[in-house]
Amino acid sequence: MEKSEERSDAVLAVGLIGCGTMGSSHAKQMAALQEIRLAAACDVDETKARATAEAAGGTVRVYTAVEDLLTDPSIPAVLVATPNHTHRQIVLTALAAGKDVFCEKPMALTLADCDEMIEAAARHGRKLMVGQVLRLITVFSEVRRLVAEGVIGKPFAVRILRCAQRRTNEGPWSAAWRSKRANTGGLLFEVNVHEFDFMRSVMGEAAEVTAMADNFTRPDYDYEDHVIVTVRFRDGGLGVLESSVATVVGATEGLITGTEGSIHYDWGKNTVRYRRLEGETVDVPVEKDAGRSVQHELSSFAGWVLHGEAPVVTSEDGRRAVQLAEAAYRSASEKRTITIE
Ligand SMILES: NC(=O)c1ccc[n+]([C@@H]2O[C@H](COP(=O)([O-])OP(=O)(O)OC[C@H]3O[C@@H](n4cnc5c(N)ncnc54)[C@H](O)[C@@H]3O)[C@@H](O)[C@H]2O)c1
């Protein structure tokens, strides 16, 4: 058989752990891909595991205990989409059972836990990828492409608004685990590891972080509903993130400024535009994401496990995003700027 035929025939069988909002979305996107398939669905809530297995069709096995799924020798890899505080233990157990692992963001709730997980993956000779998918969403990948092509020269400032409309308990935010810091890590872990990852991908590594956080509208949460973080990057650039679940007019947009021009994106409107110093404003056509970004990360995970192809997001990316969230909370509680190692 030709090598190219071998490549196209290989399919990664995956056991999904956690069949809630994100897990079922992964299962749906997997169905659109040739190179990866859902082989088992596991959830402590059997109804959810069954519903995900049935939606996928075919012969998807159902488990209610992670340990049982992990003893299934026909499943070489797992996708962990359980609440944040469970990631560390499930990932460590899966790696020890010899599985390659795709872990949803945030990778874990402390930098030390991330280090432990990366070390365990290396020790067991397994692969560990983290679902920092935002950088792959079409709007964000267009911005990253423009920056990488030098359209705005050297970027020196990034400003991001990730402000959701004030929510009553609806949609994913109705899950009881989301109201506690012990489960989520707080807004910066649950949501903004995405923005930290995106910032890093255009600005490089951070040198220092300062933050302020408070709860203005959500007495049912034991953590902030609004947070402002400033970052100084190692090569001198500046960053601001304002994140909220308390705004009334929501906004999910950003401005990246460089020596030769600026780029503005609006995720809500699916627009990217830039202007160079001497030029006109250019509207860049952006395809709707419509699941492309999740398919991209899943396909990359399969390509890494099956063929050794470099993954589009690494466990180090997941770790760095957690490091920024952790440092920002330390800054907010200690009321001082925190240096990033
Ligand atoms: N990449 C993204 O953009 C994105 C979007 C949403 C959620 N997420 C992440 O995905 C993860 C899940 O979020 P969600 O919105 O799907 O939550 P969810 O509450 O909808 O689903 C979590 C599921 O995990 C199950 N579960 C809990 N503990 C378990 C265990 N020990 N073993 C097996 N199943 C268990 C629950 O019963 C539930 O069905 C979180 O880490 C979240 O941050 C990522």
Task: Describe the model.
The chain is of the alpha/beta class. It folds into two domains: 144 residues, Rossmann fold; 173 residues, Dihydrodipicolinate Reductase, domain 2 (2-Layer Sandwich). It is built from twelve helices and 15 strands. The protein has a nine-stranded mixed beta sheet with strand order 14-13-12-11-7-10-9-8-15. It has a six-stranded parallel beta sheet with strand order 3-2-1-4-5-6, with helices on both faces. Strand 4, helix 5 and strand 5 form a beta-alpha-beta unit. Helix 6 packs antiparallel against helix 12. The longest helix has 20 residues. The N and C termini lie far apart (49 Å). The structure holds nicotinamide-adenine-dinucleotide. One of its GO terms (molecular function) is nucleotide binding. Its EC number is 1.1.1.18. Keywords: Oxidoreductase.
Average pLDDT across residues? Answer: 95
Q: Structural class of the secondary structure composition?
A: alpha/beta
- Helicity, as a percent range: 25-40%
How far is the first residue's CA from the last residue's CA?
49 Å
Number of domains: 2
- Fraction in beta strands: 25-35%
Reported by name, the CATH topology of the largest domain is: Dihydrodipicolinate Reductase, domain 2
- The outline comes out as globular
CATH architecture of the largest domain: 2-Layer Sandwich
CATH superfamily membership of the largest domain, which one?
Dihydrodipicolinate Reductase, domain 2
Poorly predicted parts: 1-5
Order of helices and strands: HEHEHEHEHEHEHEHHHEEEEEEEHHE
**What about the largest sheet?**
9 strands, mixed
The CATH class of the largest domain turns out to be Alpha Beta
Cα-atom Rg, whole angstroms?
20 Å
Give the number of helices.
Answer: 12
The hetero molecules present are:
nicotinamide-adenine-dinucleotide
Number of β-strand runs: 15
Order of strands across the main sheet: 14-13-12-11-7-10-9-8-15
